[in-house]
Amino acid sequence: MRTHTTHLPGVLIIEPRVFNDERGFFKESFNAARYQAVAGIESAFVQDNQSYSKGSVLRGLHFQRTKPQGKLISVTRGAIFDVVVDINPGSSTFGQYVGLELSQDNHKQLWVAPGYAHGFCVLSDKADINYKCTDYYQPDDEGGLAWDCPRLAINWPIQNPVLSAKDRSHPGLEQFLLP
């Protein structure tokens, strides 16, 4: 397995070792000891989530306000453009983002340390996304950030995304600058 740091502290791109042959492939998608030794991920995962989305769906940008979740994200079918945004006003990378393609073909995973906003858009006709989370989802603690916030200037690779009503109504980055 290989890891690549990003310019956001605690956000890593992970490339598991994949064994391919004429039958298909095998990969170890998580091993606590290896992920701790190689990637420094020491958090225990307490919840696994799976998401299915159709093409051009955009989900996000989501976060937990007081009980942030670390997430290990992977795609088992299709392809997504995954985005992580630094929402900590005290951080030197506040308002910056990392965006990359995760797919069934590239096998990449994204480790998102607790405290970031996260979202994705579907690049394929459909996609299955898996999240390993370090804390439980708390509906009354969730927050959102506008996917199209001009201060973020995210270069989403789809036109006219399909959004939930909730994701259409999130405020911009300025919500983190208010007292």
Automatic annotation (TrEMBL):
Pathway where it operates: Carbohydrate biosynthesis; dTDP-L-rhamnose biosynthesis
GO BP annotations, alphabetical order: dTDP-rhamnose biosynthetic process; polysaccharide biosynthetic process
GO molecular function, one term: dTDP-4-dehydrorhamnose 3,5-epimerase activity
Superkingdom field: Bacteria
CDD domains: cupin_RmlC (cd00438)
Oligomer status and interactors: Homodimer.
Name this polypeptide is given: dTDP-4-dehydrorhamnose 3,5-epimerase
Taxonomic lineage from the root: Bacteria, Pseudomonadati, Pseudomonadota, Betaproteobacteria, Burkholderiales
Gene expressing this chain: rfbC
